[in-house]
Amino acid sequence: MKNTILIVLLVCGWAQFATAQNQKETVLFDYDQFVLTANAKAKLEEVVSKLDLAQLQTVVLNGNTDADGDSKYNITLSKNRANEVLNYLVAKGISAEKIELKFEGENKPVAENASDKGKQQNRRVEITFVFAEKEYTNTIFNLLKKESQFFTGKSNEVITITGKEGTKITIPKNSLMKPNGKYAIGKIDIELQEFYQKSDAVAANLHTMSDGIMLESGGMIYIKATSKGEELQLKKGAEMTIEMASKNNPSDMQTFYGYPKKDKTVDWSTDDNYIVTEQENWTTYAVFYWDGKEQRDTIYNGKSTKKSFKRATTDAEKVSAINTTILQSTKLGWINCDRFYEIKDKTDLFVDVNLKYKPEIRLVFKDINSIMSGHIDKNNKLVLGGIPLGRTATLMAFSCVDNEVYFAVKEIVINKNASVGLDLRKTSVAEFKTALQQLN
Question: What average pLDDT score do residues 209-214 get?
């Protein structure tokens, strides 16, 4: 049985799940009176001091009396009691516009009117404070930001950089433009982030999907070029070369560009920038740079590997390049070495998890370098759509709310239209990071 890892992340960006929450209180009155007693004032003082006024939506006051006296008189008495509580709450800073007044007279007793004790319980104003549910902000990704790498180059020279994890990037000379359309001149600052480990990709809120379709990745990077603080892009017709650090990728990898969404995830799209393949009479060539000019040299003769090779300058590098994936990119920013992954038997997976923390889904496969995400359907359910059947998986959820990290994990087998529940628990940042490392 093949294994996968299914991850549910609790992140910012989902629709709001605000529901009202109620707090009920009761204050009692003396016989035939509507003035607040000392005990009633003390209780209201304590209640109001603990209210979250920012979340308070409405206050419903319902006045009541015992059954003594005329029923019409009791309606007026119950109204006066409700108004007395209203005036007290307004004096304590609660807007009168938020307060709704009701009065029932003797019509809704909560106890028998045959005894003094029962009558006392009926001489009351019921107070219902209605609050909007607290809107949680997930800050988990603030704890997991990956450190950027920084390089410098010159605009009139070929810029070649190598990341800590092995990504090699070559930017042609005089190819970077400012936002106003003018060429960048002089010093160029380069920022680079590399994402080859699944744990790094998940921690960066990345997935490998193109408009909801599953991709298989050979690595993701983020590259940014600036000149005197101005962000640059490649001029029209210019291409930079990216040699991915991952080895033995499938031969049909493409360049996918990342487009950040409102929820801060990145969706991937390709403009048909396929992997560069140098073949001639079943002889594979290495394409490399020498003094800023593109050259090529034969690596070996034999069956074509349908691979491409860039920046190999020595025989050893040329041989090593055989297992390397080289991409051409016309853009900077988010770049993914990807291919569409064919799924024969598909299904949906439903995840039952507390929506209060704005959960988001990730499905991470062990035997495929792919991370899928999900959505909330019309029934307010978390759904992973179009996933492969029959995989053994680990279902994981996490979030950070009010400086508390929440985490859940469960081993599952993906069955047809299965539903899986998760219960979050508090954990430490260190334990959570350890769990992420187990994805690799």
Answer: 87
**Mean predicted confidence (pLDDT) in 186-192:** 97
The lowest-confidence range among 1-5, 397-401, 405-409 is 1-5
Residues 105 and 192 in one domain: no
Domain hosting residue 325, numbered range: 145-340
Alpha helices (runs of H) in 220-379, residue ranges in sequence order: 315-320
Look at residue 139 and tell me if it is in a domain: no
Q: Report which of residues 384 and 314 the model is more confident about.
A: 384
The strand pair at 4-10 and 359-365 is best described as antiparallel
Does residue 287 lie within any of the structural domains? yes
Count of the separate structural domains present in the chain: 3
Q: What pLDDT, on a 0 to 100 scale, did the predictor assign at position 232?
A: 96
Paired with 279 in beta bridges are: 284
Same domain? 315 vs 398: no
Is pLDDT above 60 for 225? Answer: yes
User: Is residue 258 within 8 Å of residue 271, measured between CB atoms?
Assistant: no
Q: Cβ atoms within 10 A of the Cβ of 71, count?
A: 11
Could you tell me if 304 and 398 lie in one domain?
A: no
Q: What is the mean pLDDT of the chain?
A: 82
Q: How far apart are CA 318 and CA 310, in angstroms?
A: 9
Query: Which of 140, 109, 133 has the alpha carbon at shortest distance from 9?
Result: 140
> Cα separation of 52 and 411, whole Å?
40
Joined together, the tokens standing for residue 325 give: 């994936």
Dihedral sign of CA atoms 350, 356, 358, 361 in order? negative
The residues that bridge with 176 in the sheet, in sequence order, are 234
Is residue 334 located within the same domain as residue 348? no
| CA quadruple 240, 246, 248, 251: dihedral, nearest 10 | -40
Residue with tokens 């605009």: 155
The residues pairing with 217 across neighbouring beta strands, listed in sequence order, are 338
